[in-house]
Amino acid sequence: MKAITRIEQSLAAVIATTEAPGCPPKLAGAIQHAVFPGGARIRPQLCLAVARACGDGDPVLADAAAVAIELLHCASLVHDDLPCFDDAQTRRGRASVQWAYGESMAVLAGDALIVLAFDALANAAGGSLQRLPGLMRIITAGVGMPYGIVAGQAWESESRVSLTVYQRAKTGALFVAATAAGAQAAGADPAPWQGLGHWLGEAYQVADDIRDVVADPQLLGKPVGRDAALGRPSAAAALGLGGALDHFNQLIANASASIPECDGAAQLRELVRMESERLVPLTMSRAVRDRLPAAAN
Amino acid sequence: MKAITRIEQSLAAVIATTEAPGCPPKLAGAIQHAVFPGGARIRPQLCLAVARACGDGDPVLADAAAVAIELLHCASLVHDDLPCFDDAQTRRGRASVQWAYGESMAVLAGDALIVLAFDALANAAGGSLQRLPGLMRIITAGVGMPYGIVAGQAWESESRVSLTVYQRAKTGALFVAATAAGAQAAGADPAPWQGLGHWLGEAYQVADDIRDVVADPQLLGKPVGRDAALGRPSAAAALGLGGALDHFNQLIANASASIPECDGAAQLRELVRMESERLVPLTMSRAVRDRLPAAAN
Fold first, then answer.
1. Which CATH superfamily is domain A3-296 in?
2. Residues B267/B274, Cβ–Cβ less than 8 Å
3. What ipTM does this complex have?
C-alpha cells in the first residue's frame, strides 16, 4: 500500500472515533474540517519513510506515530489561524476552521486533536509496549514546551527572538519528531535520524517564507504577505529573497547528506529531492532570480 | 506525606520542565500562572485516594496520573476563560491567564498543558509499562471527543442540548477519569471505580450551578451569575434552587454508596463527606432554603 493511502486511511479511522452517536455535532464537523482534505501530509510521510528505512518493525505503531504527528500539525494550524494569531480566513484553499465553524469551535477542535494524537498512540502500542514512552517523549518534545511548536508560536509574542530559535521550535521540532518517531516506532535508535528532520524542517520554513513573498495565493491556498504584515521573523526578510533561496538549497543538501546508511537511504534521498521541488518549484526559483535586482537586495 | 503535598510537589516538578533556558518567557509565565496557586485540587486528590484505597501499587505512576488530570483540568479552565467562551477576567481569586497574559498566551498555555499531561505519564510509566495504554485511554476519554470535557464545552455552542449529557461531559467525565485512573495506576480494575467519579462529578457540577446563583463572588474567586447571563444549561435553572440542593444531596449519597468494599473505603467516604461540605457549606444550604419562597420556585 502506498504511504499516502496508509496515512489517509489511518487518519480516517482515528477521526471516525470522534463522531460517535451523542457527540456534539459542530465540534465533530470542525475536527473533520481540520484534517480533511489534507495538505501534502509531508510529516507523516517522512515518519513512515524513516520507519520503512529502519525495517518497518511495527507498522501499526508507525502508522499511529504518523497519525499523531499529523493530528498535532493540524491542531497547530487550527490554533494558528485563530483571530488572536493569524486571523486567517483560508487554509488549504478553503475556509479555515475558525472561519467555517467559529472561534470557539476552532479552539476546541485543536484541543481535541491534541488529545486524539495521544489516544492513537495508546491504541496502537500493544505490540511494542516498551517503545511507547520513548515515542511519546519524542512527540511531546516536538509540540510542547520548552522547544516544540507551541514554543515556536509563543516566540511570535516576544519582542526579542532569534530567527533560528523561532524556526527550530515553530517548524523544525515537529519534523525532528517525525523522523525520530519513525525510527522509534520501528525499534531503531531515533538519534541518528534527528538530523534529517532538523534540516528538512528548516528548509520547509525557509520555503514557506519565500512563498509568502512570491507565491500566487490561489496556488498556495492561503493569503501571502502575512509575515511582513504581521512583522513575523522571516528568512526572506533577514537574508533577502536570493539569500533565502541559497539557504534553502543548502538545507536540502544537508538533509540529503544526513540520511544514515541503510537499505532505504536511496529512496529517502529521492523523497527529499521531490519534496524540495514541491516546496520551491524550479519556476519559483527562476522567478526569485528574475526579481533579484529590483526586489531582493 | 499528605496527598496534597505529593500533588503540589509533583506538579511543581513537571512545570519546572517547561521553564528550561531558552524557552519563550511569557508562555512559561502563563503556564505557571495557570497551575499555581491551585484550587482545591479535588480531581488529583480523588485519583490518589482511589490509588491508595487500591493498595498504591505504583505511587510514581499514581502521582503522574493525578498530575496529568490536574494539568488537563487547568488547561480546560484556561481555555474556558478565553473571550470566545466565558471571557473571564478572574479565576481562583486573581486575574485569569487570558487577562494577565493575553489571549494568545492563554491559547498556547492550554495547549502546552495538554501536551505536558501526556509527557508526565510517559516519564512515570517505566515501572508498570503494561498499565500505560489503559491509563492513557482512561484520561483521553475524560478530556477528548466524543464524551470528554472538550465535548462538554462544545455543547455550550449547540442549540439543543440535554442537561445530563452536557454535565456528564463538561464535568463528570474528568471525575470518572480521576477515579478510574487512580485504580488503573495502582494495578486494580478501574471499572468499579467509575461510579464514584460519576456521582461526585455530577454533584460538583450541581454545586457549581448553585454557587453561581447564591455565592459571594469574593469568596468564590470568580464572577457569579454567568450561567444565566450566558444562557448556559444549569441545574439551578432547570430544577430551581431548592430542587438543585436536594439533587446535590442525593448525588453525594450515591457517591458514598458507590465506593467498592476495600481497606480504604471508610477513608474515601470521609473524603466525600468533607468535599460535600466544602462544595455546599451548611451556611449556603441554609441560605438557599431561606431564599426558597421568594427566589427559587
1. Farnesyl Diphosphate Synthase (1.10.600.10)
2. no
3. 0.93
